[in-house]
Amino acid sequence: MSSPFALGEALAARAREGLLRTRQSGNGGAGTRLQVAGRDYLNFSSNDYLGLAGHPALALAFKEGLDRYGAGSGASPLVTGYSHAHQALEEQIADWLGLEAVLLFNCGFSANQAVLKALLGKEHLLWQDRLNHASLQEAGSLLPCTMKRFGHNDMAQLAAQLEPGRGLIVSEGVFSMDGDQGPWSELARLAEQSRNWLMIDDAHGLGVLGAEGRGTLHEQGVAAWRVQIQMGTFGKALGVAGAFVGGSRELVDYMVNFARPYVYSTHMPAAQAHAVLRAVELVRGGSESRERLRQLIGRFREGGRQLGWSLGMSATPIQPLLVGASEAATRLSSRLREEGIWVSAIRPPTVPQGKARLRITLSAAHSEQQIDKLLDTLGEAKSHV
Ligand SMILES: *Cc1c(COP(=O)(O)O)cnc(C)c1O
After folding, report:
1. Is Iron found in the keyword set (predicted)?
2. 359 lines ligand 1 (CB under 6 A)
């Protein structure tokens, strides 16, 4: 039967370009080992930077939350879904990051879309770093506002694009595919000079950077009040799932009234909020894990350099190994897989053409031996790419 949607053609085109995406189910991916199709792999692909996803204290907190609140929140937050656990988590995050108020979302993707959609009308401008996350790019292109994208971390280009008092500049703390950081002092200066608002998506900086894991702004010594909208997620270093948007009390009150993905969506389970509450405590007290992670990053970069691989400018647990062609990245990833190491090849359209790479992510839960095994295997694979 004919269909108005050419699904098969689109899939076939992707396959011809060698870009067809498929999934493989595994044992869940918490910890440094991954079981897929009956085989055991060393996992260098998760965003579980502090090793919290499989931490017994978090599982315990989740169970405690289930006993106390049940499995589901029962409704959207403005109906009856907003529990004491949600409120406690909002207050704890506000205290942690020095924000006036915080609002919880089921995931970062919808949090980003919710904020941009609630704020930006057709009279507004939105300036985005070219490498911002898909959730931000997509919202920007679907909204009636005018979107301008500046080159990655290109402050001169941004300065040239800015118009006074017209809208919002959005960038990331730590870029998800490159592991480098946005220049936040400079972003804040440009936003202030031009009387525009500034938003940070710190999905990958939160928990990893700064004292108590407060994230990129703290790492770079930029005061929280200089960035009007702060977004972070609970599915990466915090080891659970969900997200928040924080800033002034007025911003949060506005979101409660105008952010439709917040108003019309069943709230995250209170048990989950309870588990995230514990995760924030673990992250704040986790300076040893952060120190350990720093050491492992140094070990990996030193080893990778010696092998002659092209690494990015990253000082974070996201370590891109630049390969270039999509096929080469896929080949390298398959080769590692044969050796029992799980690393994802990241190809266009996720990254620009010719910038295919392995995205290696390190965790405080990795051992030195596991890093060395990765390096040994990368050394052996070098001649085959
Ligand atoms: C992962 C990620 C998101 C989406 O967060 P989820 O909670 O996984 O939906 C948003 N922004 C960035 C930069 C991310 O890396």
Report:
1. no
2. no
Q: Tens digits of per-residue pLDDT, 289-300?
A: 999 999 999 999
Residue 12 contacts by C-beta under 8 Å, 6 or more apart in sequence? none
Residues 105-116: tens digit of each pLDDT: 999 999 999 999
Cβ atoms within 10 Å of 1's Cβ, excluding its own? 2
Active site residues: 47, 133, 172, 176, 201, 204, 236
Pick from 262, 303, 341, 352: nearest CA to 82: 262
Question: How far apart are alpha carbons 106 and 295 in whole angstroms?
Answer: 33
List Cβ neighbours of 272 (8 Å cut-off, separation of 6 or more).
Answer: 62, 65, 240, 241, 242
The pTM of the full predicted model, rounded to 2 decimals, is 0.96
- The answer to whether residue 94 scores a pLDDT higher than 70 is yes
Does residue 347's CB lie within 6 angstroms of at least one atom of ligand 1?
no
Residue 176 annotated in ligand binding: yes
**pLDDT at position 384, please?**
73
- So what's the pLDDT on residue 30? 79
Residue 43 in contact with ligand 1 by CB distance below 6 A: no
Say yes or no: CB of residue 237 within 6 Å of ligand 1: no
Task: Report the distance separating Cα 8 and Cα 133, nearest Å.
Answer: 27
Classify domain 27-50+287-384 at the CATH topology level.
Aspartate Aminotransferase, domain 1 (3.90.1150)
102: phi then psi, degrees, rounded to nearest 5 = -140, 150
Tell which atom from ligand 1 comes closest to the C-alpha of 243: 7
The closest residue, in CA terms, to atom 14 on ligand 1 is 203
Which CATH number is associated with domain 56-284? 3.40.640.10
Q: What is the DSSP letter of 15?
A: H
Boundaries of every domain in the chain: 27-50+287-384, 56-284
Give the mutation target among 130, 133, 236, 272 for probing the ligand 1 site: most ligand atoms within 8 A of CB: 133
Measured in angstroms, how far is the CA atom of residue 137 from the centroid of ligand 1?
12
Strands 167-172 and 197-201, bridge-based pairing: parallel
State yes or no: 189 annotated in a binding site: no
Q: How far apart (Å, rounded) are the C-alpha atoms in residues 124 and 166?
A: 6
Residue 46 marked ligand-binding: no
Residue 204 assigned to a binding site: yes
